[in-house]
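User: Structure tokens for both sequences below?

Assistant:
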Amino acid sequence: MAFAFSPNGRPYILAAAGTEVMQRVGDEDEVTYFLKTHRRPALWDFEGGAEPVILDSDWDDLVEPFAFSPDGQFFVWASYHQATPGVWDTQSGAALGEISGHTGRVSAFALSPDGHLIVSVSDDQTLKLWDFESRTELATLPIALSVGGIAFHPASPQFACSVPDKNATLLRADATSLGQQAWDRQIYDLFGIEYGPIVVTAVDRDGDLAVRCPGCLAALHVKRSQLGTEMPCSQAGCGARLRLNSFALT
């Protein structure tokens, strides 16, 4: 199984086909547990208690990377032995396509904050950048080291990945070795690529809605009628364009 938060703030579990999931229903005074399993992969709302979304997929392998789009309308998933991550609709579980091009297991990926780009790294020792809407490959870079994780910058067109640091050793306080791998980061600038409007989610505090601009980190007050629309950051000198999700966190 894999775990991820949706942009609406709810935690979800993606369970592979045949996985037994214990579902808790009720409050603290009266709780019922149901043990369920499905022949297809299933997306579970960890807190809501609703029936899971059954995916239009016959993948029966272990769930590995799993991430929602910035607006939560779809998610990307790669099973353990898959070289082609798939894209699914969050509400219906319908398959929306695959991201094909790697020849080895995809071990990590990330979606850009505007929802237009995806970066993936594979056991075939390549790192690939994709246009997410068309699923077309934009660039391929060789990468000889294993990658522990990967993430886009929230405001600038760049991403970072963690790689083993062969020149570092983790030590205890008494200078003895921990025997664990030390990690370093590599940062990649995406020259010639600009983010589109960055997707942000408003927070509702007693009816007062506000969003945080990823560019200048300013808190911007917004109206409920602005949810689901685009707006510029109002801070002088920022210039960021924001796309507000249609929902707000409470």
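Moving on to the next sequence.
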Amino acid sequence: MIERFYRSLYLIRRVEEEIAAVYPTDKIKSPVHPSIGQEAVSVAVCEALKPDDIVFGSYRSHALYLAKGGDLKKMIAELYGKVTGCAKGKGGSMHLIDVAGRIGGRWHDDSPSGGLCLRPEAPAQELNRREFLWRWRRRTIS
């Protein structure tokens, strides 16, 4: 278990460091919000989850996405705004999502500091429906 924790922590930190190094070159098309220093929280929380549990992160969601098993290549493609990204290149750093992996991205009111959830079960219900992605994409485009 400790080795698994360490590997996950190391992967997340290295990815975050590389993103931080590349970001000033303007190759990454979305603003990034690194979670350096917060890796252990995401790794520990995701270790305690069952495979079918759903997670919703904050605007610093890189660590949570990777700790829950999100696809690294899709995450990087999302940061670069590619259609092969986890949100088809429309969400960027703050909206990492993987419906199959039960990662719901952010359920929020478009400000990094706050979140809006009308009912505690609402995000889980939306994630279980295919329209979750459709609604989310429409909102980010407009």
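User: Anything stand out in the second?

Assistant: The longest helix spans residues 2-22.
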